[in-house]
Amino acid sequence: MKIIDAHVHFSKINSFQHTADNISRLSYTYDGLLKEWKENNVVGTVAMGVTETEPNAFPDYKSNTPMGLNLANSIPSTMGYCPGINPYKLEEENLQSLEREIQKPNVVGMKIYLGYYPFYAYDKVYSPVYRLAAKYNLPVVFHTGDTYSEKGLLKYSHPLTLDEVAVFNRDVTFVMAHFGDPWVLDGAEVVYKNKNMYADLSGLIVGTNQEINRHKKTRFLQHLLHALDYCDHYEKLMFGTDWPLISVEAYISFIKEIIPKEYHQAVFHDTALKVFPRLQELLSE
Q1: How far apart are CA 248 and CA 45, in angstroms?
Q2: Which DSSP letter does residue 48 get?
Q3: Which of 31, 90, 110, 207 could cross-link to 211 by cystine, CB 3.0-4.6 Å?
């Protein structure tokens, strides 16, 4: 089966490198990513743009909008990406730069880092981003749930805060990254209720197969399965690893176990092409 990884990182963020070296034990490099793709039949990915102006600064209030990808001098031809939004950098000049950036063919959406920056999804600061998303038919991906930094503020990343945005921006497709984990039941309700809200299943576990096996023996798995059943829309969910937080192979095996087999084609491939129509164009070239 062909795989699309709908959530990866490809930026020089110190915490990502530390995780790859010490927790997930993988090669956080251009070649390391290509090797994992080849071994697991990954035909395309969506990378989330994010930058830091100095080591360990993420979430970096000084980073300019749009935040891009800078792990290597070039990016793989089958990698679409979502420029990152810094709400402190949304002056007219930044918005003009963002609009120029999102017209590039490899840009498949935009990414808002809720919790990392102290603004709710419905804050008016993001209104220009939603207008651009509607104008160019691009989805907006939200970080939701736990933040991979102690500097994050969790109240801003709760998945229920996305409901208002979905209701008042029906002309925009939204993606709830990480399914709102640990508030996955709340996240499931927002996806279930709103036709324009999707979710990716990235970042639910960080580490190696050993960490996956440990989680499978806890109530974490029961909690997650309850939310997936409640959502009752497997066709609105997408596979994503949050690479380099876990290896592609390990995470594919885990997600295959928790998603009914009849929905594997949708979750691992088809839904991503529906949510990110430019990715389909990119992969057909």
Answers
A1: 11
A2: E
A3: 207
Distance CA 125, CA 116 (A): 15
How many C-beta neighbours within 10 Å does residue 263 have? Answer: 16
The CB density around residue 221, as the number of other CB atoms within 10 Å, is 15
> HSE on the CB side for 257, CA within 13 Å?
12
DSSP string, 147-196: -SSTT--GGGG-GGGHHHHHHH-TTS-EEEEGGGTT-HHHHHHHHHH-TT
Instruction: For residue 44, give the 3-state DSSP assignment.
Output: strand
CB crowding 105-120: b at 16 or more within 10 Å, else e: ebbbbbbbbbbbbbbb
Residues 223-260: tens digit of each pLDDT: 999 999 999 999 999 999 999 999 999 999 999 999 99
Beta carbons of 80 and 48 less than 8 angstroms apart: no
Which letter does DSSP use for residue 212 in this model?
A: H
Packing angle, helices 209-216 and 219-231, rounded to 10: 80
Global pTM?
Answer: 0.97
Strands 79-82 and 197-200 come out as unpaired
Which residues have C-beta within 8 Å of that of residue 161, sequence separation ≥ 6?
A: 114, 120, 121, 122
184-130-270 Cα angle (round to 5): 55
CA 9/CA 58 separation, integer angstroms: 13
CA dist 243 and 229 (Å) reads 26
**Minimal CA–CA distance to 47: which of 89, 23, 86, 78?**
78
How many Cβ atoms from other residues are within 10 Å of residue 131's Cβ? 15
pLDDT tens, position by position, 67-76 = 999 999 999 9
